[in-house]
Amino acid sequence: MSSMDKENEVTKSQLTEAFRSLSGGASRVSQAALPSSPSITAIAVAVGVGVIFVVGYLRGRRKSSVIEIKRLY
């Protein structure tokens, strides 16, 4: 190893500190991304389920056929 290689070496403590700073930043971002109120989440889920229901209902009506049965005497 030359003297230039020893100057550019990365130590285990430097790597550990870098990973800790990255994970700390990620946890702050994830906490900020959480909704401030659980009711917002509940409303979003309810709207999503409602939209899926209506789309499925309309699609089912389009595919279903009507059979008319007449009785002849």
Question: What does the model show?
Answer:
- With 73 residues, the chain is an all-alpha fold.
- It folds into 2 domains: 34 residues; 33 residues.
- It starts with a helix and ends in a 10-residue tail after the last helix.
- 0% of the residues are buried.
Summarize the structure.
The protein has 73 residues and is mainly α.
What is the beta-strand fraction? under 5%
Sheet with the most strands, sense and barrel status: none
How many strand elements? 0
Helix content, binned percent: over 70%
- What are the low-pLDDT stretches, counting only 5+ consecutive residues below 50? none
SSE blueprint:
Blueprint: H1 3-7, H2 12-33, H3 38-63
List keywords for this structure.
single chain, 73 residues, mainly alpha, 2 domains, 0% strand, elongated
